[in-house]
Each structure stands twice: as C-alpha cells, then as structure tokens.
Design a protein that fits this description.
CATH class of chain A: Mainly Alpha
CATH topology of chain A: Four Helix Bundle (Hemerythrin (Met), subunit A)
Oligomer: heterodimer
Order of helices and strands of chain B: HHHHHHHHHHHHHHHHHEHHE
CATH class of the largest domain in chain B: Mainly Alpha
Distance between the termini of chain A: 60 Å
Largest sheet of chain B: 2 strands, antiparallel
Number of strands of chain A: 0
Number of helices of chain A: 8
CATH architecture of chain A: Up-down Bundle
CATH superfamily of the largest domain in chain B: Cytochrome c oxidase-like, subunit I domain
Number of strands of chain B: 2
Helix content of chain B: 55-70%
Radius of gyration of chain A: 20 Å
CATH topology of the largest domain in chain B: Cytochrome C Oxidase, Chain A
Strand content of chain B: under 5%
Number of domains of chain A: 1
CATH architecture of the largest domain in chain B: Up-down Bundle
C-alpha cells in the first residue's frame, strides 16, 4: 500500500484528486463538474418531459394514459427508489467519516433499491405490452412513454454500475476518507435520478390519475 | 491503496504512451496546447471541405437555369455546407483557441480534466468523419442543417443520409458537451492566485458564458435528434402526422438549441475582438464590467428568443410579439458592446496589423449582421422576407463577418504564440482586403435578392426575374473569398516553415499568455503568476503606472520555481471515441458491430479509470 499506487487503483477520476487540493472556488473540480452535468441532464429530461406533456393525449388510437397507469404499483417502486436515496446519503456520511465497510454496505443497499425499482418498472413495461398491447410503435403516447421512462431506467442502471465500482473499492477497504468526494458526487447523481423520477411520477402518473 | 500485487501489476501493465515526439505523442496527448493545435488543423480541413461545397452552390447559381449541379446534389450540398461549417469548422476553430489560450489567460498549467479534453477532440473528429463518410456510403442528408421532419423521416427520406447526419451530430455533440463542462470548471476553479473573476480577460468570460450555453442547449438538440433517430430506426411515431404528431415540437426543440448556438459561435468572436482591440489601441478595454454583464445578458436572453425562427408557423400574435420584443432586447447589450469597442479605439494609438484589420472588419460587418437581424426580429416584416436570400445574407454577415473575421484575427494575433513563428503581415493584410471585398460582393447582393423575393434553397431560377446580375456578382465574390483563403493558407504554411521566430511578446501584449515563451512550454508557467490587475503583464511592464507598485509587490510573490508534475498521455480517450465511432456504423449496418463498439468504449472507460495519471516531473527551464 505504497503512496504512489493510489492513483493506479482508484476508479474514474480518482487519480486527479491527489493533486486537487486547491481550487479557486474551494469546490473540488469533480463536484463542480458533477453539478454541471446534472444541470445539463435537467435540460435533457426537461425536453423529454415537455414532449410527453405535448403528446400524451394526441394519440389517434388507444390505449391512452388514463386507461393504463398503475398508481399503487408505481407508488411502491417510487417509495423503494426514494429509500435508496436515504441509504445513499448514509453512505456519503460514512465515507466522510472514513468508515469504508459501512460505505460498502450502504452502497449495496442503494444498489438493491435500484434493482427493486427496476424490477417493478420492467414488470410494468411487460404488463403494458402484454395486457394493453402498448408498445413504442402502438401510438404516440406509447412512443414517448417508453422513451421517457426508458431513458430514466438507463440512468438508474448507469448509476448502479457507478455505485458498484465504488462498493467494490469500499469492501476492499481502499475507499478512504480522502476519497469521500467520489462517493459524494456519485450520491449527487443518484439523488438527481430520484428527483427526475419524482417529476416523472407526478407528470406521467399522478396528473393522469387526477385527470389533469 | 491496498490492492494486491497481482491487480496492481495488471493495471500497471496497461500500455501507457511514452513517446514525447512524433505520431503517437500527438494521438495520446492530453496537453491542452497540443489538443488546441489538433483542433485547429482538423477544423481547418473541414473548413476547406465546407468551402468547396459553398463554391459549388455558388457556381450552380451563377447564372439562371444552369445544370452544373443536379437538384438532389444541390440539396445535399447546402445541408452539408451548413452542418460542416457550423459544427465542424467554426465551433472547433473557436475550440482550438479555447484550448490553447484559456489556461494561459487564467494562469493555469492545464485544463481541469486533461483526459476529458482529449476525449472532446476525438469525439469531434469521430463525428466529423462519420458525417462526411456518408458522401461515399450512399449520399449525405439533403434535409437541411435543421433536419425538420416529416421530410427527414424514412418515409420521405429513405436511405441512410439522415441517419449519418443524426449520429454524426450526436458523436460530435458529446465532445462539445464534455468540453463545456471542462472549460467551466477550468475557468471557475483553476485560476491563478489573485485572478478574480472580474480580472479575467474578456475571452475567458466569453468562453465561460459560451460553455454554459453549450451545457444547457446541447441536451435539447440531443433529445430532438434521438426522437428522430428512434422514428427512423425503431419505428416510433413521434413525428408521424397520421398518429397525431405535432411537427412544431421538433421545431421548438431544435431552435431551443439552435438559437443559443448562434451565441455559442458569436460570443467567442466578441471575446477575441475584445482581446485584440485593446492591444493594438494601446489602451485598456473600455467599459470592462459592462462588457462582462453584456456578455451574460446576451447569453441569458439568448435562451428566450428561439421562437423568432418560427414566426410563420402560426403561433399567434401574442407569442410572436413576445419573441419579437425579446429578440430586439438582445440588440441592447450587443449595441453596448459595439460602443465599448469604439470607446476602446477612441483616442488610442492604433496599429493596423493584420489581426487589427480583421477585428475592425468584424466591427463593420457584424454591425450589418446585427442590423439585418433587428429587421428580421419584427414579426410582420419577417413574414415577408422569411425563407428568402435576405435571411441567408443576414446570417452570413454574422457567421463570416462576425465569427470568421474574428477567428482570422485570432489566427494572426495568437498564431505566433501557438506555432512559434510570426505570420507574414503583408500577406495577412492582402488576404484581409481580399476577403473583405469578396465577402461583401458575395453577401450584400443577397440582402437585395431576398427583398426582391428570391427564395432560399432553390437549385436554380428562371432568367428575367431580375436576379441574374446580383447572383453573378455573388458568385464572383465567392471566388474572390476563395482566393483570400488560399492566400491565408499559403501564408500559414510558408510562415510556419520559414517565418521569423516569434518572441514571447510580439505585440506588446497586456495579458498573461505573452509573459511566457512562444510557443508555450508544456507546463505553461515556470512560476504560477500572482495576479493583481486586469492587464497584469502590461502593468508589470510599466511599473510607473498608478497600480504599478501594487502589481510589482504581488509579482514578488509569484509561485515558487519548483519541479512540476504534468499528466502524461493516454490511449483511453481515443479508445472510447473509437468505440462509439464503430458503434455508430454498427447501429446502421450490423447489431454485433454496434455491441462490439460499445464494449470497446466501456473497456476504454474502465482503463481510463484505473490506469492512473502517468505523471511526469518536469524541471522548468532545464532538462527533466
């Protein structure tokens, strides 16, 4: 465990951290870049959600949104995803205290939350396709519904891979206190993916149920 | 870190580039200056391709009823000319100067993320080659640089041209977006001690605001392009009118990106002019703070004007009025800048170098571009001149008169620092006047043609419309512009071979890039400067000035001269973009190839994360 081997075994971007002690704003470069990435991603999802709002009731043939949304099931998956944000926050806190094993455990719970969310959401896709015959070729609601929720799922999966890489380092005990910023930025991303889901849940599911 | 010996040897066994010179040193470089030079030459090559396309368009239109270029080819030419010039020539040329000069201007040794910077370049190259490969793989898109559906749907546009266009733009877009993050973090976080935001050179401000525009606007065109791609490749029905689609949505998504894109191109141009004019007027930039806030205001309001591209789709008088007014408001900060540039010149000791001439040309021509823009911003008159050559004339005054003239100015001003050789001033001035005359001959007649009613994008026109003389003049002008570009190329090539060696400070400059040798050493600053003035170098050279004593005192505390750790090269950025480049072809031709490309990219990313930084220690001024 020589000092020089740090950089060689840390995940993406970690190496630069070693000489990142001083920045003009006092914010680590990785954290600032992550916030900017999130800002950009917000525009990405804003454009998709706008497309959903414009197109949701323009389908010439059904099924239409109000015929297919499943509020109880999606509420459960939403709850699971939100709880994974809690374990993520606990993981960041553990990282800042330098408790490597605890970081690993919390990240594992977070990943499990992601898996739970995805299982339910993929079941919903399957259900829509088989029970209602709704695919992305069926009508314009199907197109935007699958693209919007699909891009969100892709973000969840990407986040899980990111957290898994960190979790491996954490269980090995190699994710030390000075690397806390890497857990921190992964956490920012994970919370962002949750927040996007809250908007999607509201717009696609709750507003439809409320008849708005 | 407590990795096992086995693992450590595995990651360290990953090949790391060692070459310091030659081909592989350039392919694997993460040095912002070398990446800037790569951007420069690549963008120049694409600029020449786009220029040849423009000449073919102009030759076809030289006389009425010509059939030099077939109608289909004509449509492909104007589509590829616009796409190439915007995404593969002008933007990467500004990126060349961002790359080389932003770290120098803010007093840093590199950008915040050197490897990401290399990725940006390789994604740009991948997108450019992918897009242009459609010329030999069935023909490029003919759907315009905006690619409006439903004309761009497979039903009306079969073949792979539009797919090449979409995927090429997505690939290049990744590079642009990544450089947006990189330059914001560099400018906000990597400044030298004492380099407060309000002491930064205007070009750094322009780059900062431009990067924010990139970060907020590129994801929106990404969505527009993805929806179109899914319609074409996977049969979704986003833009299928019979399924209830509203095509206007694509127009809005495109222009929410497309209008900020104009400022992504023009703000750096304004930044360059704001650097050149003070140096050759021997005066500080007039109204610096107002210039900063005008730049921010243009960037901010620039996001709220996109619908002025859609005045004729029937949004109604209220929406049209709002976007008319918002567009006119942009003239205010732009006008402020114009007066500040004139204020900088006023009473200055002017030196009419080639760089200065190009910047002065910018002032005159960009003013015409701006004024025709105000004419277009009024919805009623817009309805009359919409889709005519008036619009073509307008935006070429902005894109060439604004952006290209400033980039030429930057080449003559900063070229000596980048290449270590002075460019020939006499040839530079000849090229300027040739370009100035050729440009106005080409594009001023278009303003008149547009008012006379000549539509855009027609491959020919009948004799006797009264358009013949103006079109012939325009084509003559285009040929004169080509001569000017050839003179500049000749100047560039001969000067780089035999030109006078550039001193550190050939123009009696004011900012930090002139404080170090030409070309800049790998580590930029042997001692990181301690900054206490906007015109730091100028005040250091003139200690008798009012702030001279304070600057001299802080210069005493420049960073120590000690060995510097610089990141070495990496194969990974190239590998990641190569994987995505291959995946692009796979998406169109073969799913296994697509998967293979993605896997290659992921392997590149993993290698990226674990290979480490390959740091080298350099002793400034001596051998390492």
């Amino acid at each position: 465990m020589s000092h020089s081997s740090h950089a060689a075994s840390m995940p993406a971007g970690a190496a630069a951290h070693g000489h990142e002690h001083h920045t003009s704003l006092g914010i680590p470069n990785h954290k600032l870049a992550t916030w900017l990435f999130i800002a950009s991603e917000s525009m990405f999802f804003a454009a998709l959600i706008t497309t959903y709002m414009v197109f949701r009731y323009r389908s010439v043939v059904g099924p239409h949104p109000d015929e297919v949304v499943n509020i109880p099931l999606t509420t459960v998956s939403t709850f699971i995803l939100l709880m994974s944000s809690l374990t993520m926050a606990l993981g960041v806190s553990a990282a800042q205290r330098g408790e490597s094993k605890a970081v690993g455990r919390f990240l594992l719970f977070t990943i499990l939350g992601g898996i739970g969310f995805l299982v339910i959401q993929f079941y919903e896709w399957w259900h829509l396709a088989h029970h209602y015959g709704l695919t992305w070729n069926t009508n314009i609601f199907g197109s935007i519904f699958y693209i919007l929720t699909g891009f969100h799922k892709a973000h969840v999966i990407f986040g899980m891979i990111w957290l898994a890489v960190l979790a491996v380092s954490a269980f090995r005990g190699t994710l030390r206190r000075e690397h806390a910023v890497h857990v921190d930025v992964a956490g920012l991303y994970w919370h962002f993916v949750d927040v996007v889901w809250i908007v999607i849940f509201t717009v696609v599911f709750l507003l439809t149920e409320a008849g708005v | 870190m407590a990795t096992t010996t086995l693992e450590r040897s595995f990651w360290q066994a990953l090949p790391k580039p060692r070459a310091r010179t030659g081909f592989w040193s350039w392919v694997t470089t993460v040095d912002h200056k070398r990446i800037g030079i790569l951007y420069f030459w690549t963008a120049l090559a694409f600029f020449l391709i786009g220029g040849v396309e423009a000449l073919l368009i102009r030759l076809q239109l030289a006389r009425p009823e010509q059939d030099l270029v077939a109608p289909d080819l004509f449509n492909q030419l104007f589509t590829m000319h616009a796409t190439t010039m915007i995404f593969l020539a002008i933007m990467p040329l500004t990126a060349a100067f961002f790359n080389y000069f932003i770290p120098l201007l803010v007093g840093a040794r590199d950008v915040a993320f050197p490897k990401l910077n290399a990725l940006s370049y390789w994604m740009f190259l991948a997108g450019g080659i992918f897009l242009n490969s459609s010329w030999v793989l069935g023909g490029p898109s003919d759907a315009g640089w905006f690619g409006y559906p439903n004309y761009s749907l497979s039903e009306f546009n079969p073949g792979l041209g539009v797919d090449f266009w979409i995927i090429g733009l997505l690939l290049a877009g990744i590079g642009t977006l990544v450089s947006g993050f990189n330059f914001i973090v560099t400018i906000l976080n990597m400044r030298a001690p004492g380099m407060s935001l309000m002491r930064m050179p205007m070009f750094a401000w322009a780059t900062l605001v431009t990067s924010f525009l990139i970060v907020f606007s590129f994801p929106v065109i990404t969505v527009a392009l993805l929806l179109l791609l899914f319609d074409r490749v996977f049969g979704t029905v986003f833009f299928d009118v019979f399924s209830g689609a509203d095509l206007t949505l694509y127009h809005h998504l495109f222009w929410v990106f497309g209008h900020p894109e104009v400022y992504i191109i023009v703000l750096p141009a304004m930044g360059i002019v704001s650097e050149v004019l003070p140096v050759f007027s021997r005066k500080p930039l007039f109204g610096y703070s107002v210039m900063v806030f005008s730049t921010m205001l243009i960037g901010f309001v620039g996001f709220g004007v996109w619908s002025h591209h859609l005045f004729t789709v029937g949004m109604g008088p209220v929406v049209n009025t709002i976007f008319s007014l918002a567009t006119m408001i942009i003239a205010v900060p732009t006008g402020i800048k114009m007066f500040n540039w004139i204020g900088t010149l006023f009473g200055g000791r002017l030196r009419f170098t080639a760089a200065m001439l190009y910047s002065l040309g910018f002032l005159a021509l960009f003013l015409i571009g701006g004024l025709t823009g105000v004419m277009l911003s009024a919805a009623p008159s817009n309805t009359q001149i919409h889709h005519t050559y008036f619009v073509v004339g307008h935006f070429h005054y902005v894109m060439i008169g604004g952006a290209l003239f400033s980039l030429m100015s930057a080449l003559h001003y900063w070229g000596p620092k980048m290449f270590g050789r002075m460019l020939d001033e006499r040839l530079g001035k000849v090229a300027f006047w040739t370009l100035f005359v050729g440009f106005n001959l080409t594009f001023f007649p278009m303003n008149i043609l547009g008012v006379m009613g000549m539509p855009r994008r027609i491959y020919t026109y009948s004799a006797g419309m009264g358009w013949d003389g103006l079109n012939a003049t325009s084509t003559l002008g285009a040929l004169i512009m080509a001569v000017s570009i050839l003179i500049t190329l000749y100047n560039l090539v001969t000067s780089l071979r035999n030109g006078e060696r550039a001193p550190a400070d050939p123009w009696d400059g004011r900012t930090l890039e002139w404080a170090i040798p030409s070309p800049a050493p790998e580590y930029n600053f042997a001692r990181l400067p301690n900054v206490s003035s906007r015109d730091e170098l100028w005040v250091r050279k003139h200690p008798q000035l009012a702030e001279g004593a304070a600057v001299a005192a802080s210069a005493e505390s420049d960073g120590p001269a000690e060995p510097i750790a610089m990141p070495g090269g990496s194969y990974m950025p190239l590998l990641v973009s190569l994987g995505l480049f291959i995946a692009g072809y796979g998406l169109l031709y073969s799913m296994p190839v697509f998967v293979g490309g993605i896997v290659l990219s992921l392997l590149g990313l993993i290698g990226w994360g674990f290979e480490g930084d390959n740091m080298r220690i350099i002793q400034p001024g001596g051998e390492q």
